[in-house]
Amino acid sequence: MLTMRNYRTIAEVEEGYLRTHPEEIDDYVTVLFDEYAQSGDTAALLASLRVVGRVKGVSNIAESAGLSRKGVQKALSENGNPQFASVNAILHAMGYRLMPQKLPSSSLPAPL
Question: Is 45 within the bounds of a domain?
């Protein structure tokens, strides 16, 4: 008889790891934004921020961000199209800020 194994998703593995290694959350956030800067994959960025949100506590983040729990979940959902202000408030509640970083001149578009 075949039995179905329950496999964990990547997000569940990442969440479990960050719960047991909270000192690595800062590096995780740095890497996810570096990857976003290269790929522009908003869905991947939001998925990773959902992981951090669950580890840090969605209710705590919502309270600190001045949003409802549902508002945080919606902003970070895979189908979400969050407003910049919401993402910025959520990041601040997580203890981070958006900060521009100059691109190397080799990656800038050629002038017209």
Answer: yes
Nearest to 99 by CA among 23, 24, 18, 37: 37
pTM: 0.82
In a domain, 4, yes or no: no
Mind listing the pLDDT tens digit for each residue in 10-53? 999 999 999 999 999 999 999 999 999 889 898 899 999 999 99
Domain hosting residue 36, numbered range: 10-97
Residue 1 domain-assigned (yes or no): no
Q: Measured between alpha carbons, how far is residue 99 from residues 34, 64, 73, 82, 96 in Å?
A: 12, 20, 23, 18, 9
Residue 52: Cβ within 10 Å count:
22
Q: Are the C-beta atoms of residues 45 and 36 closer than 8 Å to each other? A: yes
